[in-house]
């Protein structure tokens, strides 16, 4: 919520890329290969008042090729969209994935050479598409940097761990299991229950991402 990731209008493109990729990953629970298939322009990225709708490129083939998995839209929520009440709400609004995507797309326009959503920012490859491995590196770098800034030791995070953490957080927030499976593109609840549920215990299309962000806020708030 703070430096070096904020303010988004002036932070480095690398930190903006890390934060945006992380927020998309944690609020969608999608695989990195699916994030790489996202496109920056309509009709594949559509900003609504209360959410942003993302759609992979039609040529993308997911890990599991089926009618359920192919071209399934991603709905990501706004988070504290009108932060006028308190400084705390203003800070929380900095975790708004819709806001991050808007900043990222606008700031990459001058040097963008592809419609792929996530692009390189280093001089040698600036504006070109990035690989799934690079997106994965951005996500893990963001996680490690946040732990370092907080002075908290961490293990070796992976981009895929966001998938497990996001799904389990939504589950603990009582999001219906069917909505979790839809968001994470699991056709069966067995996959989640067997491999992703950290603890075994949609209201709308964007409820999944909202639950993930709210669970993180409540865990970090000493008063909660």
TrEMBL record:
Keyword Kinase assigned: no
GO molecular function: DNA binding
Name of this chain's protein: Tyr recombinase domain-containing protein
InterPro entries cross-referenced by the UniProt entry: DNA_brk_join_enz, Integrase-like_cat_sf
Record's keyword terms, sorted: DNA recombination
Keyword match 4Fe-4S: no
GO biological process entries: DNA integration; DNA recombination
